[in-house]
Amino acid sequence: MRITRRSAAALCVAAALAAAPLAAAVLPSTAAGTDPIGVATRPAEGSTNVTVDGSRIILGDAPVRMGSAEIKQRSGIGNLDPVRFPAATSAVVVDYTTGTPDGSTAEVDVRALVRDRWSEWTPAKAGTPTALPGASDQVQLRIIVAAPATGAKPWVGDVRVQPTDKVATGLKVQAAPLKSRVYATREGLVGGTTANGHVIVSRDHFVALPSRRGLANNGSGNYSVKVCTTTGTLRCAFEPVWDVGPWNTKDDYWNPSATREMWKDLPQGKPESQAAYQDGYNGGKDGFGRTVANPAGIDLADGTFWDALKLTNNAWVDTTYLWTGDGGRGTVSITSGYLNVRSTASSTGAVVGMAGKSAQVTVECQVTGQSVTGSQGTSNIWLRVHAGMYVAKAWINAGSFGAC
User: E strand or H helix at 272, and its extent?
Assistant: First the structure.
């Protein structure tokens, strides 16, 4: 078994705290005027297939899942309770130990609440400062454990976090979210399980992207995309990111080179699989050494592919990664299925797209239209989510916006 240990200083702190309750484990802060904050090592909302043994979060017993990346493995996600600091910080140091037997892996990610929205997840190397996308007084840690089909039980333990003021530049939230044209394929895999623990149903609504940095919790849409067709009649879908793939699992191609996790020599917005397929990049292979058979940078669940976008074959689509920028947002508030996107502010308007459960939608402005009763009450307000596209505010959890 491979065990990664912290620095000697951190081990001394751990020894001193060994008799204390788990939730009280802390490191002293290096940020001026900031007191130590504890981290509770227990799976919080959105966790899947992990268990707790003392100070360790361990991969659970769920069977092998494949998902969009088509890599057969057992995996688990352990979200920890958010930590609030008494003052905003631009970076944190996360400290932890891991056990990775028999080819398994374990990592810890961090995100921050910036301008009332959670930022993208960023891998946090133990004992090394990790930059936040903006000053924040609240962060959350996430544990990812994965292993081959049988045997290994990787774990992460003794998790600690502290603010710091010593770090290089990290991710930034842009004025407008990034949009890029990428090749879309249909995921299918009905009955399978996605990377966040969602069981795929017939005509499902979600997407997969080849990095966990934008992976939403099961049932959440805080990481969502807008996907629009590029040929024929324009249609758009708003969908949560619930799976990882296609091809790669660490290709956050929507990020600039400075913060992209892998393939830093590729231009922002270009997936590694596309470069491999079109240009022979990386010998024409993906991150797992497989020959890339298509340039796919996004996978679409069947309902997104067939119903929302009316695709019949794999196709190029314009994809906007909503969490990478600012702008008006609303969240689809339905219990299942999808919400129709209409060409006018009326339920009689033509269906020109769909928005999946819990997905975020962009909001450009609002208009007065047909009165509708939904999860948010009765309202005659409709939100314009794209030029010539509207959704009823009665089904959207959102504030008020300027008139169109």
Answer: helix 272-279
